[in-house]
């Protein structure tokens, strides 16, 4: 009798968490370099009752649980900004940054300079080049970033390029192992990294969030309707229970 | 329900985004204005099921975890310091910079502020001043009987004095550079002040080491691209609406639970 309530509850709890995931995607629809998350569910089968005294053997009860959230690592749309320090990765690579003493990874290429001329993220974390942080001189102008990440400038009145470093692009054997740390940063976790040569840096572009807003709205309606449908189911189950008790207890005088 | 709070952070972020965009549009015709864009970051994640955790004693590990994010925050409103287009005014004291530098302005309290707005005038003492009456550095005083005021590409101010056939150089308008000019703090009136993030001011002159050139009789327009601002505005408005929809959907879900067993 209680099984329907428990199954309904297991589904409602996963739906609630799926709604949280959708809400986070929608909230980050304008976050540079954000990758959408999606929920995965799996069946959880209740084991059979050991003592099989029923006339017909009992059936296994199937619940639902959320197995995980997986990240959609598809490329986000590129927005041109005309800002020479805005960079986007075209490909699977990540920018390496120095955050709180550790190496972190990001797809958010909204870079700027700090007071000592170093290339930093919006949070002031150093962007790492193939040989350490990238530092510009006070007289540098006409910054150019090549698709392979090489940064050249014109220094003072010079007419030939000076190299200021090369953006370090890193890719992972299993990018799903990267964990989100917030602040648009990823921790490598157990994934092994290698230098990426296939991806290209696009100067003057920002990778926008890859959240598909229409898809999220559709999923949201689906989640909401299933949730309310289960609430109705629970209500009906409870009504049934109630009327059974009332009818059975209704001893005719 | 976390979704309510998450969507609320999204609405707050988009509200700020609209504020930044509307300020850009409001300053579409402001001389020397530099547009801003709001930059967002995701908040920290709650790891309900940790990725890579062992799922059996055979050493199988979870390929994905359950990570629930808490929403979005605004990390900054960086200024895009790209060059604005120059428009000709024909006014002798309208100066525009093409390049990196800023005009240095002496404020009444003795501090300096920096601007790209070259709408200069002459005050009652003949000094070259901003529209607020603060002198441009170094202070240049123009004699009241002078004619033929010219400012060359290096910022040298020269006039023709009565009884002379050649022009006399009165001084040179200086320019100031910052290593991180996006780190300057706006103080209104088209002016900026130095911050720990901008780095110290480096005084110099036009045409030297990438300070830029001064063009007389022109003004630098705002670098706001109205078409991209309008499309950003639409995107921000829709994102706001979608976050509001998430709130109403989450609310409806909670309502269906609280309405149970009445």
In words, what does this structure look like?
The complex is a heterodimer of chains A (253) and B (262). Chain A is elongated and about 110 Å long. Chain A has 2 helices and 19 strands. In chain A, strands 5, 6, 9, 10, 14 and 17 form a 6-stranded antiparallel beta sheet that branches. In chain A, strands 11-12-13 form a 3-stranded antiparallel beta sheet, with no helix packed on it. A two-stranded antiparallel ribbon of chain A has the order 1-2. With 253 residues, chain A is an alpha+beta fold. With 262 residues, chain B is α+β, with helices and mostly antiparallel strands. In chain B, 22% of the residues lie in helices and 28% in strands. In chain B, the strands form 7 sheets. In chain B, strands 15-16-8-7-14-17 form a 6-stranded antiparallel beta sheet, with no helix packed on it. Chain B has a 3-stranded antiparallel beta sheet with strand order 11-12-13, with no helix packed on it. The interface between A and B is large, with 71 and 75 residues.
Distance between the terminal alpha carbons of chain B, to the nearest Å?
21 Å
Query: Largest beta sheet of chain B, briefly?
Result: 6 strands, antiparallel
Reported for the largest beta sheet of chain A, the result is: 6 strands, antiparallel
Q: Which two chains have the most extensive interface, and how many residues on each?
A: A-B, 71 and 75 residues
Q: What is the string of SSEs of chain A from the N terminus onward? A: HEEEEEEEEEEEEEEEEEEEH
The coarse overall form of chain B would be: elongated
Helical percentage of chain A:
10-25%
Strand content of chain B: 25-35%
Rounded mean pLDDT of chain B is 91
Low-confidence segments of chain A, ≥5 residues, pLDDT <50? none
Give the low-confidence spans of chain B: none
Question: Helical segment tally of chain B?
Answer: 2
Strand order of the largest sheet of chain B: 15-16-8-7-14-17
The coarse overall form of chain A would be elongated
């Amino acid at each position: 009798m209680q099984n329907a309530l428990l199954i309904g509850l297991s589904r409602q709890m996963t739906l609630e968490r799926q709604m949280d995931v959708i809400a986070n995607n929608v909230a980050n629809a304008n976050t540079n370099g954000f990758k959408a998350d999606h929920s995965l569910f799996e069946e959880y089968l209740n084991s059979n009752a050991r003592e099989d005294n029923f006339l017909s053997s009992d059936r296994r009860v199937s619940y639902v649980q959320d197995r995980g959230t997986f990240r959609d690592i598809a490329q986000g749309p590129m927005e041109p900004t005309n800002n020479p320090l805005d960079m986007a990765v075209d490909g699977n690579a990540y920018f390496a940054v120095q955050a709180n003493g550790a190496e972190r990874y990001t797809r958010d290429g909204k870079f700027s300079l700090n007071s000592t001329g170093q290339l930093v993220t919006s949070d002031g974390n150093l962007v790492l080049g193939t040989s350490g942080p990238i530092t510009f001189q006070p007289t540098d102008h006409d910054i150019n970033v090549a698709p392979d990440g090489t940064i050249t400038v014109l220094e003072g009145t010079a007419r030939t390029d000076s190299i200021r470093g090369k953006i370090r692009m890193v890719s992972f054997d299993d990018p799903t192992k990267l964990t989100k740390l917030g602040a648009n940063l990823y921790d490598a976790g157990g994934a092994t990294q290698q230098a990426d040569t296939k991806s290209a840096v696009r100067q003057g572009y920002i990778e926008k969030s890859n959240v598909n807003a229409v898809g999220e709205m559709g999923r949201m309606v689906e989640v909401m309707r299933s949730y309310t449908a289960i609430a109705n189911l629970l209500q009906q189950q409870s009504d049934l229970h109630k009327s059974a008790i009332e009818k059975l207890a209704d001893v005719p005088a | 329900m976390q979704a309510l709070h998450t969507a609320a952070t999204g609405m707050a972020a988009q509200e700020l985004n609209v504020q930044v965009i509307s300020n850009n549009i409001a300053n579409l015709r402001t001389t020397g204005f530099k547009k801003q864009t709001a930059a967002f970051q995701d908040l920290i994640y709650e790891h309900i099921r940790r990725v890579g955790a062992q799922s059996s004693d055979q050493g199988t590990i979870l390929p994905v975890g359950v990570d629930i994010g808490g929403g979005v925050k605004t990390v900054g409103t960086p200024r895009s310091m790209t060059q604005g287009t120059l428009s000709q005014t024909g006014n002798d004291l309208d100066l525009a910079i093409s390049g990196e530098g800023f005009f240095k302005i002496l404020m009444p309290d003795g501090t300096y502020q920096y601007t790209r707005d070259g709408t200069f005038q002459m005050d009652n003492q003949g000094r070259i001043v901003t529209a607020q009456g603060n002198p441009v550095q170094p202070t240049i005083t123009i004699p009241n009987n002078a004619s033929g005021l010219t400012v060359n590409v290096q910022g040298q101010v020269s006039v023709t004095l009565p009884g002379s056939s050649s022009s006399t150089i009165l001084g040179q308008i200086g320019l100031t550079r910052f290593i991180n000019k996006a780190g300057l703090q706006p103080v209104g009136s088209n002016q900026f002040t130095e911050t720990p993030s901008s780095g110290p001011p480096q005084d110099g002159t036009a045409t030297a080491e990438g300070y830029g050139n001064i063009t007389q009789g022109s003004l630098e327009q705002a670098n706001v691209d109205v078409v991209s601002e309008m499309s950003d505005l639409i995107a921000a408005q829709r994102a706001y609406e979608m976050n509001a929809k998430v709130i109403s959907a989450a609310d409806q879900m909670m309502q269906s639970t609280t309405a149970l067993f009445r």
